[in-house]
Specification:
The complex is a heterodimer. By secondary structure, chain A is mainly α. Chain A has eight helices and no strands. The chains are: A mainly alpha, B mainly alpha.
Chain lengths: 173, 257
């Protein structure tokens, strides 16, 4: 058990920021993001510790899938759409310090708002590839698509995002 | 942002969203909560196994007792450095409350002022280290301690207490007020109610001290042999004292000294 705990501790340290950000960008609330992130890791730890000698094969995929399911459940339970409150929510995690708050500018806010307006698949592919630095092969695994299809999807996602930002800049959004 | 954003610029901006990070304290706490759950399930077994050793080999009893005492002492010491909202903070509060039971009525103002200063130190530490999660509990703890200190200060009768001790209380209350201003400059919003009560109680004591020293001064002058002019001044001083014009009494004395 001590070895398992040690191994999970490493997984936690490696992914906690990414999973938190992944959720935060979708729920736009520090409290909800914290709740859903801890629930994601708690479920993963249960699965991980039950597996004993044969724990989760791909912890990253499991974590993202669990996080996605929890976000979907959250919106289903609340009867909300993902874009409702995004404009009202500050881009930064309120837990971050004031200097960092000052660093973030309104154009990042625009990007975040536009990102939240994209289809879920487009949001995920952009977050995974550009924010979490996952290579196309990894993103393809997470999406359950071929690398070729993933590249096309990424291209479309980026175009869609750019369109939304430009629309917002010209005031037609 | 420019009207038309290029793909390169967009990717660059997307990468800036990496600045979104969870609070470090929350990250550590969540980790310990998740990984600590198994420990909780295992703990009854551990206690049973310890007891088994204890009964099977009485020779180990001493070691077990030492181990338990060291653990308790360690937890207690760690708790003393904990901050509001942290896991061990309730232990610190319990220990303070236990000590407060043995404090006499006379020492209560002193103890409550010391606790208010302690709570303020904790709040300062929380604000300086930007522990946002601990901020609300730290403010609440400080406000409660200030209200308690104000309540105890308002019960003091300066005329029947040691003036030097009362002066120390007044100074201590003033220091708290000054330090609160420093904490506020860090952007912390603290409710005024308790602080106003403390300031009111301390100002009342300060005034009582002043009156007391003026009365002593007058009584001292009454026992001296005075010239006609000095007698006149003394009588003026008494009148002003009756009229509660304390600063004028002092001024009259200092000018004609």
């Amino acid at each position: 058990m001590a070895d398992l705990r040690k191994a999970f501790s490493k997984i936690y340290d490696q992914y906690v920021e990414k999973i938190y950000r992944f959720i935060f960008l979708k729920v736009n609330s520090q409290e909800v993001a914290q709740d859903l992130t801890s629930e994601t890791f708690l479920r993963t730890w249960k699965k991980f510790s039950e597996g004993k000698g044969n724990p989760i094969e791909n912890p990253q995929a499991f974590l993202y899938q669990t996080a996605r399911n929890l976000v979907i459940d959250y919106y289903r339970e609340k009867g909300k759409t993902q874009t409702v409150s995004v404009e009202l929510t500050p881009i930064i995690d309120p837990g971050e310090n004031l200097e960092k708050k000052a660093m973030l500018r309104s154009d990042l806010e625009t990007i975040k708002v536009a990102l939240a307006k994209l289809k879920e698949n487009y949001q995920n592919i952009i977050i995974w590839h550009y924010l979490d630095d996952l290579p196309i092969s990894e993103v393809a695994k997470l999406l359950g698509r071929t690398e070729e299809t993933t590249r096309v999807l990424l291209h479309r996602a980026l175009n869609s995002l750019r369109k939304k930002i430009n629309q917002s800049a010209s005031g037609t959004a | 942002m420019t009207d038309i954003i290029t793909e390169k610029k967009l990717i660059g901006k997307l990468r800036e969203l990496r600045q979104i990070k969870p609070n470090k304290d929350w990250v550590l706490l969540t980790k310990s909560q998740i990984l600590g759950q198994e420990e909780k399930y295992r703990s009854p077994i551990s206690i049973i196994s310890v007891l088994r050793v204890f009964f099977a080999k009485p020779g180990y009893a001493g070691l077990v007792i030492i181990f338990i005492l060291v653990s308790l002492f360690g937890t207690f010491t760690l708790a003393q450095n904990s901050l509001p909202g942290q896991l061990l903070y309730p232990i610190k509060k319990i220990s303070e409350k236990t000590q407060a039971v043995f404090v006499s009525e006379i020492d209560k103002p002193k103890t409550s002022l010391e606790l208010a200063s302690k709570r303020l130190e904790e709040l300062t530490k929380v604000a300086e280290t930007n522990r946002v999660q601990n901020l609300a509990p730290a403010i609440n703890e400080f406000q409660a301690s200030v209200s308690e200190a104000a309540k105890n200060l308002s019960k003091i009768d300066a005329t029947s207490s040691d003036p030097a001790v009362v002066k120390r209380f007044v100074d201590q209350a003033k220091k708290i007020g000054e330090k609160v201003e420093e904490v506020k400059s860090l952007g912390v919003v603290i409710g005024e109610e308790g602080l106003e009560k403390l300031e009111k109680a301390s100002s009342k004591l300060e005034l009582e001290l002043l009156v007391l020293s003026l009365e002593n001064m007058i009584s001292d002058l009454e026992n001296r042999t005075l010239t006609e002019k000095q007698e006149k001044i003394l009588s003026q001083m008494k009148e002003l004292l009756e009229e509660e014009k304390y600063s004028e009494v002092l001024e009259l004395f200092l000018v004609n000294q």
